[in-house]
Fold this sequence. Notes:
The complex is a heterodimer.
Chain A: H1 4-15, E1 20-21, E2 35-36, E3 50-53, E4 58-60, E5 69-74, H2 81-94, H3 98-102, E6 105-110, H4 118-128, E7 135-139, H5 142-152, E8 156-158, E9 164-167, E10 170-173, E11 179-183, H6 191-205
Parallel strand pairs in A: 5-6, 6-7
Antiparallel strand pairs in A: 1-2, 3-4, 3-7, 5-10, 8-9, 10-11
Chain B: H1 2-23, E1 31-34, E2 37-39, E3 43-44, E4 52-54, E5 57-60, H2 66-75, H3 106-109, H4 118-127, H5 135-142, H6 155-167, E6 193-194, E7 219-220, E8 226-227, H7 233-243, E9 254-255, E10 259-261
Parallel strand pairs in B: 6-9
Antiparallel strand pairs in B: 1-5, 2-4, 3-8, 5-10
Amino acid sequence: MMTFVSALRVVAARMAVTIFVVAAPGSAAFAAPAVLAALPGDSVYQLPITLTGQDGRSARLDGRRGAPVLMSMFYTSCKFVCPMLIETIRDVEAKLSVEERANLGVVLVSIDPEHDTVQVLKRVADERGIDAARWTLARTDAASVRKLAAVLGIQYRALVDGEFNHTTAVVLLDGDGRIAARTTRLGSADAAFVKRVRSVALAASR
Amino acid sequence: MERAALWPPRARALVAALLAALAGNGTAAEYVQVPAGTLTSAIAPDAIGTPVPIDAFSIRVTPVTKGEFRRFVEARPEWQRGRVPQTFADRRYLLDWPSANAVGDAHAEDEPVVNVSWFAAEAYCEAEGGRLPTWHEWEYVAAADATRRDARDDPAFRARILARYASATPADLPAIRAAANAYGVRDIHGAVWEWVDDFNALLVDGDSRSGEDADKLRFCGAGAINLQDRENYAVLMRIALLSSLNGSDSTTSLGFRCVRPVGDKTR
């Protein structure tokens, strides 16, 4: 298996396409600029959508490109599974070393943009005490939600009472936005998934 | 007076449609308006038997044809076979075309396009100033026969639909132009299966036949969808197909049509 960085070098050398620098989207974690090549065709980041985080800042879906990301979808008024989702991701993080965790982004996108305004996301972020440097609770428009769910393989359906049915999956994206692993296990962290997170985080930090 | 009030919300869609028609160098697609109403859906996310409100919308009279889709990929080369990222289309995308910009003979131009992914279908509809219909919008229109807006209780109607689905084969794509239903919509049954906007809303659990949710934690809120109408086999076939697909999948019998919003939100 090629490491992520060596794969990136190969891609860059082969394609010699537009090389650009990822600007820091307002976070210290992005202080060191990374030089990246064209996106792979199977990257989730091919999707040209914009997310707005709990801090009110907007960025394209690939705003954390260069670092691994745990991505999932949720809605804030969900009483049971969605708080568990946050705890599950925290449990994954707890099994990582400080170095592995340092660059790992967590992006949770609401499937309920009508109710999950920036203010609501901010309140929930504060209530849950999330680490805003690495975690983003985000919203986007309804059409983009449907597309993001489609690329992540997440199903959801609005119910008449304002609740949603949705499949719960945490998706691990590598630095180029390719799906490296996914888990549907909630509660305690899925060991095989944690292993994949560690190896992708390690590859990205080299 | 009322029409003038409808203009502003519609204006953008109309301009987009006009631009798309010009860019596509073809004639503008024909849409018919579908009035608002309620639908007792064959599938029930919750509150079994509660009708779902449907806002007015307009819908394409016919599915998108290969000729129309060819003009789209000519105007938007990023959606050509061989150029489109794997994230949006699998390797079967437009595979029945002899080349990236040719669909075959004149007859093929008028056949419904198939082998299109959900992402490509959605992009096409956006270029036409609309989107894919929701499951409920599609089901609402598809409930009609030639004279009734909801013929679903008629066993003969169901049998006709089922027979058409059962006989559809990839090698036998009919040129569209079947008789219009009560809304003026053609070929919604029998020509091809059609994508819907919320294809990934059909949460069908492996064990939903039993009515029990085998893995409750997969779903937030209530469990998988319930089927209110177990006798409606054509609907079951549709659910089975759409719920099994990813957004990048394309199949030899799956096409699409588009809808556009209308400004009138009153019912």
